Amino acid sequence: MNPYETLTSKIPKSDVYGDVPLYGRYRAHPDDFLPESRAATDIQYWDSLLDCCTPETRIYGDGNQGRDIFAVGGIIVHSAHLQPKDDEKARRTHSYGDANDVATAKLVNERFPEIPVPRYYFQGMLRGCHVLVQQRIAGVGLNVAWPYLSSNQKQSFKDQTRSIMLKLLTITDHDRSTPTYVVEDADPCTHRGIQERERRILFDAQLTDDLGLAHNDLNWSNIIVNEDAIVGVLDWEMAGWFGRDRPANVHRQIRMPDRGTYSHLPGMTEERLGDLLYWNDLYDF
Question: What pTM does this model have?
């Protein structure tokens, strides 16, 4: 199958994401909903938009973060308004991560406009929860396209991702002498839901590498592709002045699957295992 196919009628029933047609595949259409330009600060406008964010338009329910993701025409909405009011995860603050997302994407776009980042339309409180509204980039999630890619295409996307990482590392804040998120956060375990282990890695004082900018969560689902090119890099909430080694350690130790965990599973061949672990060496350059 064409890895970049977006028409649901052409997606095989065996596709891993076939039962979630709005997830990871999007072809822009002139009639797709887009926010009105006057609406940037119109709270009532954005509140009414949440009426379109229903179980039918939900593409991802994040049990760990307590916030759902909805696809409505040409936008993506992050909101917990459908979650129970007494759900602590749903009610925790997302303001730090959302502010980091918006600020970092703006910074990257100003320095390297060729790195494709989404446009952000709204960030704030609606119906008692933090809401983020952003552009829905046309293309296919790398995680969705992955099973249909050739080995050469997979290597190309790894090389393209590394090229983006190297550009980001050249963006520095000369006033920084210690690692931090772009929007500083004294308690990321609470505000961003990260593990204590990840916090220790990121703020390890013993590492002395340069504190260039790092995305810090370049997994397949945060990369949008089309026609053999990366057309979108999403979710900058974990980005910061961390240099290379700290995010590399987080990537290997926390983000990626471990060989020992999967190698003994029934039916696991060396070929399948190699494909599963293909992204583990992303920082080996």
Answer: 0.94
